[in-house]
Fold this protein.
Amino acid sequence: MSNFLPTIVSRSQSSNIMNFFVPIIAIVLTLITGSIIFLLLGFDPLYALYTFFISPISSSYGISELLVKATPLALIAIGLAFCFKNNIYNIGAEGQLTMGAIFGGGIGILFHDTNTFWLLPLMIIAGAIGGALWGLIPALLKTKFNTNEILTSLMLVYVALFILDFLVVGPWKDPHGFSFPKSRAFSDSGRMPLLFDGLRVHFGLIITLFLIFISWFVFSKTMLGFQLKVSGFSPKAARYAGFNQTTLIFLAFGICGAFAGIAGLSEVSGPIGLLYRDISPNYGFTAIIVAFLGRLHPLGIIFASLIIALTYLGAEDAQLFLQIPSAVGFIFQGLVLFYLLGAELLINYKLSFKRT
Amino acid sequence: MIKFITIISTFLVFAFGSANADPKKVGFIYIGPPGDHGWTYMHDVGRQYMESQLGDSITSTYIENVPENADAVRAIRKLADSGHDLIFTTSFNYMDQTHEVAKDFPDIKFEHATGYIQADNVATYSARFYEGRMIEGHIAGHMSKTGTIGYIASFPIPEVVRGINAFYLAAAKINPDIKMKIIWVFTWYDPGKEADAANTLINQGADIIVQHTDTYAPCQAAQKAGVYAFGQASNQEAFCPDAHLTSIEDIWGPYYAERAKAVVDGTWSSGDTWDGMDKGMVVMSPYNTKLMPTDLIQEAVNMEVGIKDGTLHPFTGPIYNQAGELVVPEGEVAPDGMLLGMNFYVQGIDGEVPQ
Amino acid sequence: MSVDLILGILQIVLIATTPLVFAGIGELVTEKSGVLNLGVEGMMLVGAVTAFVTLVITGSYFFAFFISLLSGVVMSGLFAFLVLFLMSNQIATGLALTIFGIGLSSMLGKEYIGTPINGLSPWFFVIFSFVIVFLVSYFFYKTKMGLILRAVGESHNSAHALGYSVIKIRFLSILFGGSMCALAGSYISICYAPMWQEGMTAGRGWIALALVVFATWKPERVLIGAYIFGGVTILQMNLQALGLRFPGQFFSMAPYLATIVVLVLISSNRLRIKLSAPASLTLPFYKGR
């Protein structure tokens, strides 16, 4: 083997300087690659990049939209962190989100002509319960029957989507809606209050920030956080320490499901206001990327959710102002992720040029 | 804040659209890519027709692949914010989103396809595709040798159920024993699944395939199996020349041109448009002269004439539902209200509408 | 029920299930070496579009499949570079690959949507899908290389200690997986539904991923799982066409529920799972550990 190629050596501690620099390196690389792509497609690269990254958030409305888009991503991702820290691969958050929307939205439909202060809290609780119940199914199957949770949680996504479909086509159909597949609108008290007049950013953001703070506290200050970390790092050590893996699995899935359920409920009681077939643009799947991009850390997840949300908004602006097809938006988003993920190497490992 | 937005929007309207010399901006929201050769493609063909008709007095833009959820509001608002004077939202599930944005931009005109709620600045428009289904049914009644029709349905919404009923009523007039085999695929768009459904129907004896989904996979499957098929949304003859009898084409161009012209002239007003063959919004693709006898083609053309001048209506009584109850009395035609919310099969169709 | 009807149903099931078998067996080899690639859907789409576009341009089916396989190698090579050399998180990188593939395929195919082509008969590929499953099974359990590959997936550190190149073996496994996914995609756009439409694989990549776990990482069981899945889907269509009354959504749900049920039955035997699941799945390997 060549002696002059660098070898990769694990850092004893992840590098703090690199923690800061990596996103910047990734962004610079993205900008360079992006410029090349746009140049090849015949667009002015500077203007294209401006349209992608600056113009979407250059107004208060734009910033509000960024938050609207980032809120469910961050909330689901922080829930997923409970699972992923413990090496539980729950990839069915989309289904848990859908169930949350069904449970919470069901309450909203039931009380569609009631205007009281307790309606929204009840819907939020129902959403959390719905998501948690859906999350507990793979947990139960995993602990009882040793069934792989990647598969069951993924399959349950489709089942949840079909249940929603069945409800809005059938029993929950708006009786005045000419048989179109959508429910009645929730009453005003079943909607998330808006934080600012005329902007869509809603109370769900506050809930999300609160739950992220709680999660940070759990991760860093409590026994549960310690247990999750240890049993994720070494299940054997966790067993020796007397941690109950079954309980941890149920907790992680339950918390994650509840968070995703609340995210689903805030989506339908926030910007949407009723139930229909297509409530989520794959928030549950995108949040998996957010969780890993944020390295399962609360602050990281907040930043990652904002970056991913920005790439979505940027793709829309690029279509509108530059007639760049939406496909290029996806390609660009993929590249940003590749760079961010690839550059993580520099945090946890360093290159060594010493002879081996 | 709302006031602020209104001021901004008035400013934008002023800046971009008030002077007569400036072209009016027309924006479109698409559910799919314009190249899908189905629903969105036909809207884009309509957009281009509008541009060609109105020349320099308008410009147009579109945003494609806009999901039917909270994201749609942002896309519509972006069009409104960037000085568009007229915005077409081309899928049913953009309804609430269109109205949400329209509330904040009273000076901008909105047009929502296939919706049923109007506002001062929101008009709705749709096409009577079921008129075309009637002609297809008539042709199928003559052309089917096995007496079994295979129908690929997407979602159980009135639009699709209406099409099935119109087709069956016309087919049963020619051949009272004709049987409908219906597969609901619960997707608008999955070429593989659509082909599977077509092959399943053919395998069960159907010799004519009718589709209410978006791709030309069913027509291709019919071609391969040597049976007949009707296309959807656009003329699909190029993909299955030996199976394709005709297609129902969605022709939006004249409507788009008319509405955009109204905005240019300052005469636009809200309303509900549900046009059919008489206005050229629903058009039958050229009938396949290789496959269909000349007199059948002549009958189909005569039916078009009848539908256009109002002497022929696909839902003319007596019409019974599956329970045998008379829903449209003899000599009357089904009112638009019944057609809009249609969620039952007429007598003679087996099975039930998935609920 | 006549014999013809049953034979017809069987044909439809075979044609519909073949892409699942290709993608599933490819992903199985990748996972068996200890790498989880969630980019199946993206690679299938790029495989589908490159095959279609090449066929339109050159008119040669051979080139179409060749270029398509090459696209699978390039796409999975990109993934392999990220997860093996830059040690990025496999799950997130796979999801990013899918996003990238969706975008890339739409862009490459933009000018070719609605171009008519002559579809190719699926039967060669249907047979080939059985052959490839048999070959992979033979490779795993009857050859030394197969044993090494499984060892790498089981414990990369031991395999490394024994002098095998973990990175090289994983790289090749990922490339094989990628080319199989591309083959699945090209089968869809050339044989199954001969056309190019954006996103035309319609979620089959995710089903293929599920199949691998369903099969408990055993090649022949990918075949069984794929056919249960394909069979249930086609069966419900047949029941619908026979005029049976039922809520359609529940039948559309059936394949997914069936997968869960069968999985529970298979995996309640802990030992059996332990024996076949690659222990190092998703764990990164670096020599300095």
Summary: The first strand of chain A starts at residue 7 and ends at 10. The radius of gyration of chain A is 22 Å. Strands of chain A lie at 7-10, 182-185, 274-276, 349-352.
